[in-house]
Task: inverse folding
């Protein structure tokens, strides 16, 4: 019994947040993109690309904040490729997303060689965002909760704020309403004289921004260098969180945190002597299996944006 | 009265096809204009020119006597033009308020003031007597109410000219009366209205003036009070039209050949689309089901055809329970089907007419080559054992000659144009596509036929013909289940009329014992 209780220490929850943060960010990006009508399976690629550029920016200037900005900008620029392909060139969204993922992996590998003349991994950054850990006065001194939520690193705070901001954005603002309509019934928007193209670009760029934060988190906040394939499928888990979270930022948060929690828990379970009998692979697979199950159940009730993945063309004949 | 809008000598050519030729239309302030024309007469092209989606080849648009150039719907909007499309531009899972304010949201720094929006919407709906629930979601409200939302949406943004495309197509007679009251009120407020329609009596009832388009040209314009629908029809089609389809009295056969017993169907979301439905149709009888769209018509048709599985209940045909029959088996047992969506369920748009005329029968002996008798024998034996799952059956070679001969015969008999069996079905006009489906189904000599919306999107001239063919089938003793949203059609054809409301039959009467008002009332659930 004590053994089980001892599992639930603050460390478990800080690890949960650690695992969840990049997924929450990328998932909100996915939510915004799909609510605007563009299916985005390229989250993984966006993250990978920005993770690399966050390191490039940090090493070049020695300042992780500039690294963060360059990571985010890289993510946004990279997302424009997806936007241009799907919105202007009318390419199938899934095909474009798949290409984005491959392009991202290939391009970073290539740039790694060009810029740093190494393969596989960059050097460590001189200073990382992890060194910017900031305990919020008073709040952080709340026992248990304070340590988990209010003694955190910058991007974790940004993640928490993002959930609130983008929930308000989608439900309370004019732009948010237009974005949603462009994913539900684009023609209704266009006939009112509001550009569906612009709204869809907005969704895609916001997903680039959020994946930029997620990627930077991996390389210059929890990590301190870029290594190939460091996103290792988190973008796809985020995609799952989008669906399980029913295309809302809060839902995405819940789904991602559940995943992060199970992942954190399984590390702890691995070291329990009574469970030594099971091979560790079973524990590692656990979060993924559970997320498949969660989605299988969630999908039945969730309804994707109606026009998500649909091409939009206004016939205009001169 | 001053002229608000003038379309002056509009010509629009698409490479070689002339969609509009020298069309001049004038709309005065506070005037209701009826725009009549068959499918393909150039009505939608004209509207697209007006809304800046198409650039006219020649001619110009004047508003308040000043020439304007619209390059997008946005420009047309800001000049005070609004259009209510036949397929509503409403977002299903959003509230009535959100849909109305879209694009004109009362806001502070980009944040929508929902309270103010809601109040404005309510005030507007009271002003024009357009009753709505501002918080309801679009997917939960009836089509008639959705139309009110569309009208409010137009009123919300300072519209000077409202264009309505086939506004009465989805409405019950009572709703039509109410709509016309609203439109007259708009006119009294100085708004101009264009109503695009093919319903002639409605056009002459509501409009001040009527313009008639035929083959892209303006054939006539007239004051509504000077014409009746017979004259309008002649102008619209270019020849005389007989409206009263000749309907002989029905021969009572007494044979109940088709029955539905306690039929229920559950949708994916767990709600019942059809609940405990019972009906009986005699051979040689047309059983017409009226109702507002979305009350279970689509599901009923799919269940009867066997495309989806019912939840409970029995489908009985010629005293056999056929629940377990596949669609193919139903077809082979002489159950015909004319679907509402011909491009999705009736035809393969990419295939030629000859192939489309044999769909479903391609494995039958008359359309396959008489190959080696040994092979033939193998196919037959396997057929007996495996039935429709026989894997080699699909390997028989199609006898092109027989297929083409069949096509030529049907094309001639049903006057399908062009007279060319290699024409691709998707490129035929709506009326001719429907003729292909109708011809094919009738030629299979059904004993029962399910007909859904047989004249949807079909020209006035062709409607006549299709109705005649349906009645001829009835006179031959075919048992007919007709589902239609057009009340007119139900009354023209049916021997017995039923109203489907929320998946239940709420009224069933012989046609001569009821009238449109009664049926209309039941259609909106107004009986209780």
Result:
């Amino acid at each position: 019994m004590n053994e089980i209780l001892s599992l639930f220490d603050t460390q478990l929850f800080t690890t949960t947040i650690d695992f969840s943060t990049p997924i929450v960010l990328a998932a909100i990006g996915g939510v915004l993109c799909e609510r605007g009508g563009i299916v985005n399976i390229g989250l993984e690629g966006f993250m990978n690309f920005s993770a690399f550029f966050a390191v490039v920016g940090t090493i070049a200037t020695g300042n992780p904040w500039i690294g963060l900005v360059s990571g985010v900008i890289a993510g946004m620029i990279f997302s424009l490729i997806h936007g241009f392909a799907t919105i202007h060139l009318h390419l199938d969204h899934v095909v474009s997303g798949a290409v984005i993922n491959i392009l991202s992996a290939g391009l970073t590998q290539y740039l790694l060689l060009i810029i740093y003349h190494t393969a596989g991994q960059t050097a460590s950054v001189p200073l990382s965002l992890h060194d910017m850990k900031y305990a919020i006065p008073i709040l952080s001194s709340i026992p248990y909760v304070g340590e988990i939520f209010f003694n955190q690193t910058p991007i974790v705070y940004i993640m928490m704020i993002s959930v609130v901001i983008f929930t308000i954005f989608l439900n309370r603002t004019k732009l948010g309403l237009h974005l949603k309509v462009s994913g539900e019934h684009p023609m209704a928007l266009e006939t009112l004289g509001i550009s569906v193209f612009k709204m869809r670009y907005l969704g895609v760029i916001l997903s680039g921004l959020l994946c930029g934060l997620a990627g930077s988190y991996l390389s210059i906040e929890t990590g301190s260098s870029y290594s190939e394939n460091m996103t290792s499928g988190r973008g796809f888990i985020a995609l799952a969180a989008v669906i399980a979270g029913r295309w809302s930022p809060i839902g995405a948060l819940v789904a991602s945190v559940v995943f992060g929690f199970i992942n954190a828990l399984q590390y702890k379970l691995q070291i329990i002597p009574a469970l030594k009998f099971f091979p560790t692979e079973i524990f590692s697979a656990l979060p993924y299996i559970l997320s498949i199950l969660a989605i299988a159940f969630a999908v039945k009730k969730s309804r994707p944006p109606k026009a998500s993945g649909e091409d939009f063309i206004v016939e205009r004949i001169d | 009265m001053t002229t608000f809008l003038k379309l002056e000598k509009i010509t629009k050519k698409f490479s070689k096809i002339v969609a509009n030729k020298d069309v001049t239309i004038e709309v005065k302030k506070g005037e209701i204009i009826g725009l009549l024309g068959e499918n393909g007469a150039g009505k939608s092209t004209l509207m697209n020119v007006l809304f800046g989606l198409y650039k006219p080849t020649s001619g110009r648009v004047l508003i308040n006597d000043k020439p304007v150039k619209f390059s997008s719907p946005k420009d047309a909007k800001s000049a005070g033009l609004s259009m209510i499309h036949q397929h509503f531009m409403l977002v299903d899972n959003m509230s009535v308020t959100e849909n109305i304010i879209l694009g004109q949201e009362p806001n502070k720094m980009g944040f929508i003031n929902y309270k103010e929006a809601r109040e404005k919407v309510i005030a507007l709906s009271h002003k024009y007597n357009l009753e709505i629930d501002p918080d309801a979601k679009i997917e939960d409200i009836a089509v008639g109410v959705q139309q009110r939302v569309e009208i409010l949406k137009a009123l919300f943004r300072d519209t000077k000219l409202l264009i309505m495309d086939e506004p009465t197509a989805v409405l019950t007679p009572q709703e039509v009366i109410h709509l016309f009251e609203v439109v007259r009120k708009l006119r009294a407020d100085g708004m101009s209205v264009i109503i695009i329609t093919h319903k002639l009596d409605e056009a002459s009832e509501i409009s001040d003036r009527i313009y008639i388009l035929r083959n892209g040209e303006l054939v006539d314009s007239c004051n509504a009070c000077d014409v009746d629908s017979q004259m309008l029809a002649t102008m619209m089609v270019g020849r005389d039209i007989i409206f009263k389809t000749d309907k002989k009295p029905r021969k009572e056969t007494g044979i109940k050949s088709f029955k539905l017993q306690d039929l229920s169907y559950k949708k994916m979301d767990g709600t019942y689309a059809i609940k405990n439905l019972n009906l009986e149709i005699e051979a040689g009888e047309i059983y017409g089901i009226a109702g507002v769209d979305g009350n279970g018509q689509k599901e009923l048709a799919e269940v009867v055809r066997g495309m989806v599985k019912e939840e409970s209940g029995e489908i009985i045909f010629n005293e056999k329970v056929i629940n377990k029959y596949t669609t193919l088996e139903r077809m082979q047992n002489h159950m015909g089907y004319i679907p509402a969506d011909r491009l999705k369920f009736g035809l393969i748009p990419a295939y030629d007419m000859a192939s489309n005329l044999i769909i479903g029968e391609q494995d039958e002996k008359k359309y396959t080559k008489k190959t080696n008798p040994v092979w033939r024998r193998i196919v037959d034996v396997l057929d007996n054992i495996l039935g429709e799952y026989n894997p080699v059956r699909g390997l028989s070679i199609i006898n092109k000659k027989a297929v083409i001969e069949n096509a030529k015969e049907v094309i001639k008999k049903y006057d399908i144009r062009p007279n060319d069996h290699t024409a691709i079905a998707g490129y035929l006009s709506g009326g001719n596509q429907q003729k292909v489906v109708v011809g094919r189904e009738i030629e299979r000599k059904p004993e029962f036929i399910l007909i859904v919306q047989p004249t949807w999107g079909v020209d006035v001239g062709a409607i006549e013909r299709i109705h005649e063919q349906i009645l001829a089938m009835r006179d031959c003793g075919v048992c007919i289940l007709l589902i239609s949203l057009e009340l007119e059609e139900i009354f023209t054809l049916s021997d017995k009329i039923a109203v489907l409301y929320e998946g239940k039959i709420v009224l069933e009467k012989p046609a001569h014992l009821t009238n449109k008002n009664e049926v209309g009332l039941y259609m909106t659930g107004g009986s209780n």
